[in-house]
Amino acid sequence: MNKILMFDALREATDEEMLRDPRVFVLGEDVGHYGGSYKVTRGLHSKYGDLRVLDTPIAENSFTGMAIGAAMTGLRPVLEGMNMSFLLLAFNQISNNAGMLHYTSGGNFTIPLVIRGPGGVGRQLGAEHSQRLEAYFQAIPGLKIVACSTPYNAKGLLKAAIRDENPVIFFEHVLLYNLQSEIPSTEYILPLDKAEIVRTGKDVTIITYSRMRHHVVQAVDILVQQGYDPEIIDLISLKPLDISTISESVKKTNLVVIVEECMKTAGIGAELIAQINEKVFDHLDAPVIRLSSQDIPTPYNGALEQATVIHPEQIINTVKKITAIKLSNDF
After folding, report:
1. In the beta sheet, which residues pair with residue 206?
2. Edge to edge, what strands does the sheet with 168-173 contain?
3. What is the domain partition of the chain in residue ranges?
């Protein structure tokens, strides 16, 4: 086992896949000589050269279109968005081209493309740099969407995404790059469509992903000391949702709390509630509760910024509230 930071885990995954497959190349703003805004591509330019680590102009629509065209012709691009919010400038290319071309070409083209980069609420990055775009992309047919949350799953998922024949949107949280943990020293690949059961329990199912996984774990550590037994599921795959794993957990606990950094209106949590109600409504002892960010542009002010997202104490109070409902129903 090696102890490693998340940005280094992502760099290792990219490096190993570039070494394994000469069709893999990286492109984006400052990914070459500078080594990436968060150093995920550090050292790759000196190792692989200009043709496989391409510094692009500040023109997301142009280089995203170029990456899609490269994927159509047999290459395997890994596109870094300096900030995922900037990819709104390439929304047309991602939706009308990356998501559709396999289908509209009658299967003649595959689009083995990874679009990865930082997103989420950081520390006073301003509204334009703090957006959570997972729900924007979730509605696009033809895409897979992944949100990593630890160095271990970041490396295993990125390697799987690069090898996949479909376009994959790969979300990394800007505040998790310096997260450190142990990962295997031998190669491993993780499935793109499976949730992770972080902790087993019987009282309530807490569903989360990305940075909020760590807020949930903090909250659950306190809840366990107080006699509660929550189950934690890290979604990892935002599209498709691993509804099978979720359903089995709900059948056991009969209660669900969703914790997300996405906006509440039409967010990931909203889709989760819809699918849970469709699949396992009869197993619920109380309505699903979702804890989501407020539906406002993220303030620059630090205190206001923190007030827009969910924190461990809110999770603790919600778990206590929903389990009390279940206990009252039992009597």
Report:
1. 232, 257
2. 53-55, 24-28, 76-80, 114-119, 168-173, 144-147, 237-239
3. 2-183, 196-330
Rounded to two decimals, the pTM is 0.95
Per CATH, domain 2-183 is 3.40.640.10: no
How far is 250 from 257, CA to CA, in rounded Å?
A: 10
Top-tier CATH class for 196-330: alpha beta
The crossing angle, in degrees rounded to 10, of helices 268-280 and 243-253 is 60
Catalytic (active site) residue 129: yes
Place of tokens 């002010």: 301
Q: Which of 45, 129, 173, 214 is catalytic?
A: 129
The two domains 2-183 and 196-330 share their CATH topology (first three levels equal):
yes
pLDDT tens for 8-25 read: 999 999 999 999 999 999
Tell me if residue 95 falls in helix, strand or coil: helix
Q: Six-digit token pair at 44?
A: 């790759």
First to last CA, the chain: 49
Pairwise CA distance, residues 255 & 284, whole Å: 6
Could you say which of 17, 60, 172, 196 is catalytic?
A: 60
> Is the Cα torsion angle 278, 272, 258, 269 positive or negative in sign?
negative
Q: Give tens-digit pLDDT for 275-294.
A: 999 999 999 999 999 999 99
Phi/psi for 132 (5° steps) reads -110, 110
